[in-house]
UniProtKB/TrEMBL annotation:
Keywords, alphabetical: Methyltransferase, Transferase
Name by which UniProt lists this protein: Methyltransferase domain-containing protein
Phylogenetic lineage: Bacteria, Pseudomonadati, Pseudomonadota, Gammaproteobacteria, Thiotrichales
Gene Ontology MF annotations: S-adenosylmethionine-dependent methyltransferase activity
GO BP terms in the entry: methylation
Domain Methyltransferase type: 45-140
Pfam families, per database record: Methyltransf_11
Domain of life of the organism encoding this protein: Bacteria
CDD domains cross-referenced by the UniProt entry: AdoMet_MTases
Length: 204
């Protein structure tokens, strides 16, 4: 998957995203924001904020920056934040693989359902670690390849269509953790049948 196919896929999804992926992904969004245990004045970076469905879940005294590579998804997030009067949120169209923030900027960084969409997950994680403060909290919510061999084979097959689907289904959790040298605090199965995972890591 490359940058152009991601932008095109999410241009197609923008108008239907909330109906198709809104409810199914929502427990993961709620659980992550809950587990972030945000304190007054915390700065949070939401990477791949999409249509902004998680934004109303944050306490109002937290500053949130939502970035996304898709202007179409982000324009939906702006409409939602205006509708809900969210004054603590700012947006930027930006690539998670080349973040436009200085080192050690955010108390917490979260990327929900993004790791299997970005073309290069290692650069994506390196950028997240760079902009997160030392010992800050990093959360990934994602589907990782299944432990059952038959399901895994099917997921590999689906990956042939990832440029159309707009996501891959074959990201290995073990490889994701080891290649990115994540200091994992907790891994929680999430959403339907625990098919997705929430990975809470502490920045080095
Ligand atoms: C499956 S959606 C998840 C949206 C949202 N986090 C949610 O909970 O519904 C993936 C999002 O990641 C964004 N994305 C993909 N690659 C990106 C990149 N390199 N930089 C920033 N955002 C990216 C897509 O545009 C899309 O909005």
């Amino acid at each position: 998957m490359d940058r152009t196919s991601v932008i095109n896929a999410y241009k197609r999804y923008a108008n239907i995203y909330d109906h198709v992926f809104g409810w199914i992904f929502h427990p993961g969004r709620m659980r992550s924001v809950e587990q972030m245990r945000c304190q007054t004045g915390d700065s949070v970076l939401e990477v791949g904020a999409g249509t902004g469905l998680s934004l109303p879940l944050y306490p109002p005294d937290v500053v949130i920056i939502g970035i996304d590579i898709s202007p179409h998804m982000l324009s939906k997030a702006k409409i939602l934040s205006e509708r809900d009067g969210l004054e603590n949120v700012a947006f930027a169209v930006a690539d998670a693989q080349l973040l436009c923030f200085p080192d050690n900027t955010f108390d917490k960084v979260v990327a929900m359902y993004v790791a299997s969409v970005v073309p290069d997950p290692q650069t994506f994680v390196a950028e997240i670690k760079r902009v997160c403060k030392p010992h800050g909290d990093i959360f990934f919510v994602n589907h990782f390849s299944h432990t059952n061999i038959w399901v895994r084979q099917f997921e590999r097959f689906l990956t042939l269509f990832s440029h159309i689907l707009g996501f891959r289904t074959d990201l290995s959790l073990d490889a994701f953790i080891s290649q990115n040298q994540l200091i994992v605090k907790e891994i929680t199965p999430i959403n339907l049948f625990g098919y997705w995972s929430m990975v809470h890591a502490i920045n080095d």
